[in-house]
Amino acid sequence: MADQTIIRFENVTKQYDQDPAVLNDVSFSIERGRFYTLLGPSGCGKTTILRLIAGFTEPTKGNIYFHEKVMNDVPANKRQVNTVFQDYALFPHLNVFENVAFGLRIKGCKNDEIKRKVLEALRFVNLVGYENREIKEMSGGQRQRVAIARAIVNEPEVILLDEPLSALDLKLRTEMQYELRELQRRLGITFVFVTHDQEEALAMSDEIFVLNEGNIEQSGTPTDIYDEPINRFVADFIGESNIVPGVMKEDYLVQCAGKNFDCVDGGFNRNEQVEIVIRPEDLEITLPDQGKLRMKVDSQLFRGVHYEICGYDQDGNEWLVHSTKKANVGEEIGLYFDPEAIHVMRLGETEEEFDKRLEAYSEATHAD
Ligand SMILES: Nc1ncnc2c1ncn2[C@@H]1O[C@H](COP(=O)(O)OP(=O)(O)OP(=O)(O)O)[C@@H](O)[C@H]1O
């Protein structure tokens, strides 16, 4: 719904000095109460988007709207946005209470209001009782919660989080993923979270924007992006994939390694060159003549929950299989997969073209 939109980027380009643009003509909307993740490799422009939302830098071209009002040059302190930085940026000489109270004091709030709001924010992050602690006496996870309490204390509409979990060890990081997600649900404040960790993005988000070299390659729910990546970059970046060349013979029928396979995709041209994606966990090991493809096993690793088996089909395509069944190096095995496990990608298709094709295709199939 339009009135749910808090922030909108319209054809935003950002260029620092004479360098090539770090964001190219980026458009997207951020809605109320949702958890968004900006995901992409180092240098793709994630932090630049946060800085533009926060008001720490201005777009070179295009517009940034808050509630449909242009905000391009509105200063950071006039925006209903707070940022949690990677290193938390806490004040080491102030205790927990004063760290959280800082913004309210700057605003000139009265002492009793400050006390009420700080205690409420600390209650949200389970830190009541820690008010007088020094920052250096707090653990990594606790410091992060102080930083979040400081960000929520003056009830912003949006909280920006720039890789806030990257400094934590794996166990704490997983715990904090749950905590952050839960906190966002309870608060109902929109979170825009930056990470280059795809599992973290899949676990936490309502919506993910996958970025590459200053462009949003694809946006959607975690399952949309995992099940229907629009191109090789997204398929590769989000989880492990088998990506092999194919030819679309007709709707629902794709050819790969010299064989025809039923699939659930359509809207392609007859005999169009495509790429097909099958996730390693969607491949099942069978006897050689009971599978849909034959593969010669080249290597195998035991990963605890499954074996990671690599090999080649008769066309030389490489396949990666995650299976609870063991295979033997050098052995020929069969691979079985359901038609739904195949996802067909059109070469060079943009997200807009992908959406249009799906729409046209679903209208055509419903008209039949
Ligand atoms: N102030 C600046 N002046 C010039 N170039 C900059 C500036 N800030 C960022 N850049 C460049 O813009 C590009 C995008 O940087 P950005 O920090 O947005 O990427 P990122 O996706 O957040 O990367 P990381 O995951 O490594 O933090 C990089 O090439 C970076 O060197």
Automatic annotation (TrEMBL):
Keywords: ATP-binding, Cell membrane, Membrane, Nucleotide-binding, Translocase, Transport
Keyword Translocase tagged: yes
Lineage top rank: taxon: Bacteria
GO molecular function, one term: ATP hydrolysis activity
Coiled-coil boundaries: none
Record GO cellular component, one term: ATP-binding cassette (ABC) transporter complex
Domain (ABC transporter): residue spans on this chain: 7-238
Pfam families tied to this protein: ABC_tran, TOBE_2
SMART domains for this protein: AAA (SM00382)
InterPro entries reported for this sequence: AAA+_ATPase, ABC_SmlMolc_Importer, ABC_transporter-like_ATP-bd, ABC_transporter-like_CS, Mo/tungstate-bd_C_term_dom, P-loop_NTPase, PotA_ATP-bd, Transp-assoc_OB_typ2
Gene3D superfamilies registered for this protein in UniProt: 2.40.50.100, P-loop containing nucleotide triphosphate hydrolases
Keyword field contains Transport: yes
PANTHER family membership: SPERMIDINE/PUTRESCINE IMPORT ATP-BINDING PROTEIN POTA (PTHR42781), SPERMIDINE_PUTRESCINE IMPORT ATP-BINDING PROTEIN POTA (PTHR42781:SF4)
Protein name: Spermidine/putrescine transport system ATP-binding protein
Organism the protein comes from: Baia soyae
Phylogenetic classification of the source organism: Bacteria, Bacillati, Bacillota, Bacilli, Bacillales
